[in-house]
Amino acid sequence: MKCFNYLIAQGKGQPKKIEENLNALSKHPFGDHSSCSTDWCRFIADPSIKYKSLPYGKPLQDKALQESLTTLFQKYILNSEKLANLGSTQSNESFNKSVAAKAPKNRFYGGSRSLAYRVAAAVAQKNTGHKYTVDVNVSSGLSPGLYTRKLATLRDIQARKRKAVAITTEAKLRRIALKASRNQSSSTFEVREGVCYQSNTMIDTATEDSDEKILEIPAPKNKPVENDSKPDISTMTHIYFDIEATGLGRTSHITQISARRGLETFSKYILPAREITPKAAEVTGLTFQNGSLYLLDKIVPAVGVKEGLTGFISFLEKSTNNVIFGHNIYNYDCPVLYNALDNCSLLDDFQSKIVGFVDTLKLFKLSFPNLGSYSQCKLCDTLINLSYDAHNAEDDVNALFRLVNEKIDNFTDVQKVFQSELSVCYNYVSLKQMNKNVPSLKQMLDDKVVTKRTANCIARSGLNLSHLRLAYSRNGRTGIKDIFSEPCGSKARVTKSAKIIDSVSDFLKEL
Fold it and tell me: Is the Transcription keyword given for this protein (predicted)?
């Protein structure tokens, strides 16, 4: 279609040229350039280049399709005289817009002379510009009006500037880019939503496979944009926080939770609902046997997870504008904490009590660059000459409180590493989606269709194998391309890589 529009535009007033180009157009997409012209065909000079608009950059191979196109173009060739003298409706549409502005359709002017005057005003504006108002005043024996003349001149200058800008190459490229974006957006919605309106849509879809039964592919969720004017952390309530858990996984169960606000502290041991891994037991000294929690083989008083989390929320309630400080909390503590809160239906209550988080691992990397290690133990030993019982949440919190208060006096760095609660919650939801969707992509990983990183990205965006199969069944490779490259904030939902899109499409084609 793009080539057809181009040859019509270039052959305006030249029927012979249109005939020659139509003949070439039935061959060009199929790799036959014997009838092409050097004016527009790049393959004559370099046969090795790829097609920009065809799959995999290769020519079409369907001979039946080529014969059909040749037959179709023969009809156009017989009408080359008409094709050479086509006009544009753009000027008519522009005039209609002017008339509609002066005689809106939601008002009835046809019962009086008002309509004729309004249409005449639109005609005068189209022919002579906005200065028609001055000419009408003069011809009627009225003052042209000082401000009327100034405004008419200004409007005409603005119109000439808009016209001059509109015909530049940059403006044309911008219009093409916007049109492509609109088309992709429309195509993506069609792939995600499927058939929403057509004859017998309920009857037809009822007989299709399970993937196509009125199943809508979920839309991507945009990451919350961090406000440039972040809250002043120095005026907020600082809560120092740490947890210990049954393992290193982000769905591990909490075994100890501690927090500190000034001189006030909170600490609880938690009874986990799963076994503590040997590695975690070795590091923390905590073991779980016969329904009791042991620290270095001595039983410690422990509560259920919901009671422990409720106590932590009650601790937070005693202050306002809480900002939670913790070491490496973005990677570990926050996902584990949010998972526990979510499972106990306490997440909304917790979210209402805090403003955001500060990861002190990122903070000290920013404030003290080029240190050998940024583990909390090493930082305490290096910066404040403090040794303590690491991996005990209460001792970790007290050490972190002292470390931050003694060594961090530049709150500009704190502002830089601050993340709002909305942003941290978004990361948790994305991680939850990834854990849910990744198992469905196992075959793609086993067959090395995608890397683990790409599979995680697909799953994190809310897509699983059923969604990919559905997108492919609706629009083939283009369907996969549409949902993968769908805008999500400032980035693509998954990727724009043609290599990955082709690999996934080929895999789905074989299913």
Answer: no
CA distances to 220, 221, 369, 435, 457 from 430, rounded to whole Å, are 10, 9, 30, 9, 10
Phi, psi of 189 (to 5 degrees): -60, -40
Q: What is the per-residue pLDDT for 198?
A: 60
Confidence band (pLDDT; 50, 70, 90) for 103? very high
pTM, entire model: 0.70
Q: How far apart are the first and last CA of the chain?
A: 32
Place of tokens 């050479």: 84
Q: Which of 478, 482, 487, 509 is nearest to 56 (CA)?
A: 478
Q: Say if CB 353 and CB 316 are below 8 A apart.
A: yes
- Angle 131-133-136 (CA atoms, 0-180°, nearest 5)? 115
The candidate with the shortest Cα–Cα distance to 415, out of 279, 263, 226, 278, is 226
Angle at 58 between CA 54 and CA 63, to 5 degrees: 90
Query: Whole-angstrom Cα distance, residue 239 to residue 259?
Result: 6
288, 351, 391, 392 from 275: Cα distances, Å = 7, 29, 18, 18
Domain 233-423, CATH class in plain words = alpha beta
Q: What is the pLDDT of residues 43-96, one digit of tens each?
A: 888 888 888 878 778 888 888 988 898 898 888 888 888 888 887 788 888 899
